[in-house]
Amino acid sequence: MTTKLISGTGLQLLRRYDNRAESVRAQLLDDDGPAYVQVFVNILRDIFKEETVEYVLALIDEMLTANLKRARLFHDKSLANEDTYEPFLSSSYYVVSKHCIYEELLLFAARLLWKGNWFIQEKSCKILALIVSARPKTQDGVVANGENSKKKGTTINDVLKELVEWLCTQLKKPSHPTCGIPTAINCLASLLKEPVVRSSFVQADGVKLLIPLITPASTQQSIQLLYETCLCVWLLSYYEPAIEYLATSRALPRLVDVVRSSTKEKVVRVVVLTFRNLLSKGTFGAQMVDLGLPQIVQSLKAQAWSDEDLLEALNHLEDGLKDNIKKLSSFDKYKQEVLLGHLDWSPMHKDPLFWRDNVSCFEENDFQ
């Protein structure tokens, strides 16, 4: 692998952009954004000196952080015959061909995920997530995927699957002791809206890696990690294979502990929305009743929340839990438990309504 020289035009553009005030850079990007994106991607593709790679990644990161809408520059039609993924992906995995510029960048980014130092890995992960999320959709809602390419080599699914593999690796054995897991969770929270990411994450057995992170938090940093972890679970609650795994894990008791103790509205909101999605799935409703969620919902409703979605979700959850209590606390079920010697003194049987509605039933058959 040999290092190429930066072209004269590329060097001229880079010097014009380098060490400029943000207002000047913003104007340059407004005037000719795709040209600067092309320069950045070309450098990442052709230059392998670590300091240079770090510098260009920092420029891209600063550009996107200042204005997230600039991620759309990587999808500009004028760059349709370039491959934006290539700088970031493992070159041994894919045949690099001429794709749109963002595909080329993503290829290089995923390569850097595995081979770079932590600074390079963290920046590559963040950039990947942003430009993938910004890619355009066609009129029928299908995501555009290099349809203008001259030759198909790397697909968006290839990129996302490799990114998921790296994210799962970070959750198992982080490259950085304190930043590895938060970086991976932050990226997942952005990408799990993608069907292929959900599928790949579940297939990689990634759901179980989230469960230990669902725990009450106190510091600002840990609260943000908890929120983004719960956001990942909420996104997975729309995906049936993930729901099946959540049903057999300790996810629900941990989520109940979080919503019981949390005072952060955004955390409570995303957990309650997750409960609403899971309520009608399998035995989740019964488990929620057993875990005392009806009482927690009553307590939450008494608090002053400003989020209308949260208030609506609490009302929906309250009604759904009441329906589950009615089903589970029927006298026939209670009688069967007594006769079989399997009586479970659960919250449903502590419900005053159960005793009030069924007191006469105890007098049947000579108080059998």
From TrEMBL:
It comes from the Eukaryota. Belongs to the V-ATPase H subunit family. Keywords: Hydrogen ion transport, Ion transport, Repeat, Transport. Residues 327-368 form the ATPase V1 complex subunit H C-terminal domain. InterPro entries: ARM-like, ARM-type_fold, Armadillo, ATPase_V1-cplx_hsu, ATPase_V1-cplx_hsu_C. PANTHER family: V-TYPE PROTON ATPASE SUBUNIT H. SMART domains: ARM. This is ATPase V1 complex subunit H C-terminal domain-containing protein. One of its GO terms (cellular component) is vacuolar proton-transporting V-type ATPase, V1 domain. GO terms for molecular function: proton-transporting ATPase activity, rotational mechanism. The keyword Repeat applies. Pfam families: V-ATPase_H_C, V-ATPase_H_N. Transmembrane segments: none annotated.
